[in-house]
Fold this protein.
Amino acid sequence: MRKRGKQTWYYEHSIYLNASATVVGPKEAQGPLAATFDKTYDKLHCEENNWELAERRLMKNSIDICLNKGNKTKEQVDLLLAGDLLNQNVTSNYVARSLSIPFLCMFGACSTSMETLAIGSALVDAGFADHIIAATSSHNATAERQFRYPTEYGGQKPDTATCTATGGGAGLVSKEKSVIRIECATIGKVMDYGTKDPFDMGSAMAPAAYDTIKTHFEDTGRNPAYYDLIVTGDLSSVGSPILKDMLKEDGYNMEKVHNDCGLMLYNSDQKVFAGGSGCASSALVTYGHIVQALQEGRYNKVFIVATGALMNPIMIQQKESIPSIAHGVVLMREEGVS
Amino acid sequence: MKDKFNQQNYDQTVKEYQPKPNVLWNCIKAFIVGGSICLLGQFLTEFYMNVLDMTESQAANPTITTLIFLSALLTGIGVYDRIGQFAGAGSAVPITGFANSITSAALEHKSEGLVLGVATNLFKLAGSVIVFGVVSAYVVGLIRYTIQSFL
């Protein structure tokens, strides 16, 4: 049975993540996960003339490298699922324009990485596609322009703010056997606990992550100890402890297994306020560090919960609160596969 | 989830998780940086008065122009936003902050062309300052005129 409990999908066939790729900007390349990225740029402009082109290049690069690593040509890919943070998902749409792969555009804010992976896997499982690519990207400067102020504006940000990660990540999914199996996914509900501060997404998103993780445990009958690692996308140093305390009230102790992608991406001296955020945050850590650790056998079971603040600057100005969502995907190491 | 976190009191509950801004230290930083900018302005005024033989009112314009130029330059080379993060109101309130808001918007929207990009967005941040500046000047002027005409 594919559906278990209320929100969890088990893939009936064995679905695999055959290859993945990550491309990053300068700040991420200086972080502790530098060695896990496939390509790095030392300038935020990524050899392009404007920020939007730079972000497009990051996503395009990640897809190209991913295809290369998976030994597939784009003609062999049946479907591309992608999304980003910009209005009308321009990065994804313009990258898809250059690829001529059938395309589904998605928006889940920073939860897009797992949204595309979960739905892509479901479509492969159901036989609608043999090979799919799930991709996402974010760029610090395009996000600043979209959601906040011009890049060089000298406004002061509070310590609860997060710093949008610059990067693109892509994964290739099919039924072809490889080391990493995509076992199940939990689709989240939109949660809104009424916070209104766009400079504190961690507090806004913690309830969404809480709800998805709790539902996942209920649907699957698992508990935190079942996993080697449970990561959230970009809850920051503010949202992470909130999440852990929320789950503690329900009797789930996350202390030993939880980490946050936005905190894993950067060193503590890198001036990213409360941590990294953006679609790239969870994508870079998943498609880089986690994939490699699963391949090497350092992890066996990982639950990735990508968190997205469905924030719109105009809604904030109209005094609305920030709705959030979180989608989780379970990646498992398949023994006996080279 | 039982007591601590519920939708009604969430905003209050999470306050303890959010780092508190250090108001005193922020005030000191703003005072030092804002004061230094004003000190530089005073130095420039003295320079124009003593070296270029201007009166105090004549020296005001080149002083402001020089500060605007320096702010725009620092914005262009990517330094002013770092000063702003450190100083807060200290670098936002003086004329240099105004210049930064205009220059940063111009730089940001260069990619959309001169008319619809730079020109349209130039006062995106500074526009509200101008609107409230003009409106409050008008109101204060009216009050002053009314009082004067009764005295």
